[in-house]
Amino acid sequence: MTRVTADITRVSRRSYWGRDEFESEMERIFGRCWLFVAHESEIPSPGDYVTRKLGGEDVIVVRDETGDVRIFLNSCTHRGNQLCRADMGNSSHFRCSYHGWTFSNRGTLRGVPERKQVFDADFDKSEYNLVGPPNVDVFHGLIFASWDPDAPTLLDELGDMAWYLEAVLDKAGDLQVVGPPARALVRTNWKLGAENFAGDGYHLGTTHKSPIDLGTYLNTEAFPQLDDVSMDAMRGRCIVAGNGHTLRVQHYGLESDTPVFLGYPENRWSDIAAGLDPRQADLMSRMSVLHGNVFPNLSFIDAAALSSGDDTPAVSYVQFRQWQPVDEMHCELIMFALVPRWYDEQQREYSQRANLRMVGLAGIFDTDDFQNWTSIADMSRGRVSQSTDFVYAGGVGIKPADDVDWPGAVYDVDHSEVNQRAMFRRWSELLDDDSICTRTAGKAGRC
Amino acid sequence: MLSDERIGVQDTDDATFTSVSRFYGRETALLDAHDYPRWIPLLEPEFVYRIPVTVTRDDPSQSPFVAGAYLLDESRDSLANLWARRLEPEHIDFSWGEVPLQRVRRFVSVLSVTDTERANEVSVASNVLVTVVHQSDPVVITAAGRQDVLRRRGDGWGLVQRTVQLDESVVRLPHLRMVI
């Protein structure tokens, strides 16, 4: 079946809503790619753990006694029972509630009750350590893992996107999560949210007309630096960063000799610039909003919230969110609010509040987005509707610009579908690549 | 677990309990009717509406509701300016998430009204069951605990604070943009 046209301007609806397509994605994309699983600041101390999904598998993400981050299936190697039953906690070991097999937080099988009575003398505990992904790595606090034993390094997989993620994650020093993530079951396919964050500036004028009209976006009144700055000079760019990673950034047309980091205390601006390379400072300075998607399903937004509806001052916020596939019609959305470590309690509260009011589960943006994404799912259940295509032809002839020296292909366009095409090009390549079958031979699969 | 101060000793008098119960009947009807213009005036100027993140913990002594981490954090002004206004004629055509209106009912029960250190304020704990129907979808039900602080007014009560503790750690409502 043709999933996408050669130029990726059309994507079959079955690519979203087909059961077979979903199964292929789980094997060939989520069984292969580096996937975000947690933020380091969620597990700061030895024994701290969170339970998450990694490519459809339930896993424990734990900091072991030596400080290393480890990931294991949350499943006893004896008979598969769940080991950790909490979302978060601290433990030096994990004990199965069925027969009592006990594992260290390094994954080593330590205790087997009645071992000599139940098992033969040649029973070798070392054969039953916890199972985990062969690749785990951390990028500026983001913990990723891949189930593919032959995966490239995380840095190779991130490619040019690493430079942009650094700019977001290092802009204000180390970022840390505000608390446990918000979670919601959303009745839509994981790709709809991912491709929206990947670079859909086109939907803003319609979907988000209400928050724009209510002054939360594209409003120069919030920052004195924006006095006399014309909104017509607002400039958006779409960036294709390789391997399906993309982002969109929008800047105010503000003339300034030094970087301006809207939403951060002005007395920190020089420090923020000093922590970035000059090109990254250029990317983040005067920024209104930057959002993107790390292929396949880790999206992020970094924005200066202009009005939170009350006397909360204009403030910057950063959110990472993951679209965990559940089935072709559902995903679990997990949202992480991140703030600089140096924020005091008041700054943290302002930033979290703006984050929630804009892009939280009750946020003025997401409330309208959810409506679209669930509606598309509902309208895609029939055989006829599934036989049609989605259109991604926006900006099909556009060429990369050369007026900035940022990595990747930078397009001088705010509203286009160039980013979505890059995402679906990678998606299509991976679904058509049979090499994953030989690399994961012996594992359950459909190859 | 019930904390000991919730069991009887600081319960308010019957007249106050009855008055508070009547207030909830009226407040719930306004919310179910999406009647923000008449509900917002029930809020005191410093009103805060919060929903903390719910997690499953391995330590039974720890609360499942995480202090300082929220799903929602609103004030009277933010509710008036970014929620209520979306249902006004000028904005309603682009309030895609709220319109068509969801049919929502709040079943508020098991009221426990407690006097506080402030003579004109009471603390109210209750259970809330919320049913939501969006278009032709099946009903979605969610259960929560609610902790309110109410302040006496000449005409009844004003809401000073509302904290809603959702039992579900994964939200299944179509969206969370509702006052529970």
If you consult CATH, what is the topology of the largest domain in chain A?
Naphthalene 1,2-dioxygenase Alpha Subunit, Chain A, domain 1
Radius of gyration from the alpha-carbon trace of chain B, in angstroms: 17 Å
Q: Please state the CA-atom Rg of chain A, rounded to the nearest Å.
A: 23 Å
By oligomeric state, this entry counts as: heterodimer
Q: What percent of residues of chain B are in strands? A: 35-45%
Biggest interface and its residues per chain? A-B, 46 and 40 residues
What share of the residues of chain B lie within helices? 10-25%
- What gross morphology of chain A would you assign? globular
Unreliable runs of chain B, pLDDT <50, ≥5 residues?
Answer: none
**In the CATH classification, which architecture of the largest domain in chain A applies?**
Alpha-Beta Complex
**Which strands sit side by side, in order, in the main sheet of chain B?**
2-1-6-5-4-3
Q: Give the strand content of chain A.
A: 25-35%
CATH architecture of chain B: Roll
Low-pLDDT windows of residues of chain A: none
Please provide the count of β strands of chain B: 6
Total strand segments of chain A: 21
Major sheet of chain A: size, sense and barrel closure? 9 strands, antiparallel
